[in-house]
Amino acid sequence: MAVKQLLMCKRGQIGILLVVAAFVSTQLAAETKVPNEFTSGTPAKASEVNENFSDLNSKIEAISKPESSYSVLSTETLDSGLVRTTLYAYEQASSSRQVNFHNTEVLGPDSALESSGLGVVINALGQFQVDWFYRNKFARSYYDPDEAQFAHVTCPDGNQIPRVGTDIVLNFNFISLAGGFVLSNRGGINTGEFAGCPDPLSGLSKSYYYLEGFGSGVYSCVSRVALFGAEYAGGLTYKTAPLDATGFDSYTTITTVDRTSIGEWGTYYLEIDAPAGCITLSGPAPGEPTPAPD
Question: What is the pTM of this model?
């Protein structure tokens, strides 16, 4: 029985390798053009052959390590000696969330909107699974004098963004096999949910979030990490069902990223404070050219 299971395991591994090989070859076949083409009987220059190999290697890496083309926006050394690194939180992403309402038959202190979600994102650090839990007890107020009453950024029109005064909790995790980050919208000077910037198309107010937390695993050396950005802004696109959800109807949403819109107001950023050499970045350093979005 043990031998049979081992053989089945090996067959499964070989099958996975064949699928990966087929995927890579299919992707490369779609881009067969190389910098230099050679004809029979014509000498090939070593420099041109090397250029072809370099081009092939870059295409393979673009498939196997897409994060290598993603942006590290800035690095600066703080007075504490830590290095602050800023990058886009999502350069590729796909996630889903389920939104439900509780105790809404009669509105009271325990009436709440709750949302949980799961997804995959890629940025200049690599690939992460993300999950989160959001709860808004919209009939209960929350106030902490140590937390900012306005967001650390302003609306596009320059107006301040006030804190939402209801009892809101948002916990968010970035997870990889090597380690990750755990963040919350409470407990920091800038943390919270803020609202007050109307969407010019819908007229609805966009929520701006600021979360802080720490690293784990290979990121245990990170003393502080912040995630901030706005819902329905900065490259994020949403599809919701049912389309006619109103009032306290439950609904579900799929979210993806449009890379051509990254950098606009509301884009989500990661800001990481850590000793030099703590984190390994795959993307170009600040000031280096970054390939254009696909």
Answer: 0.74
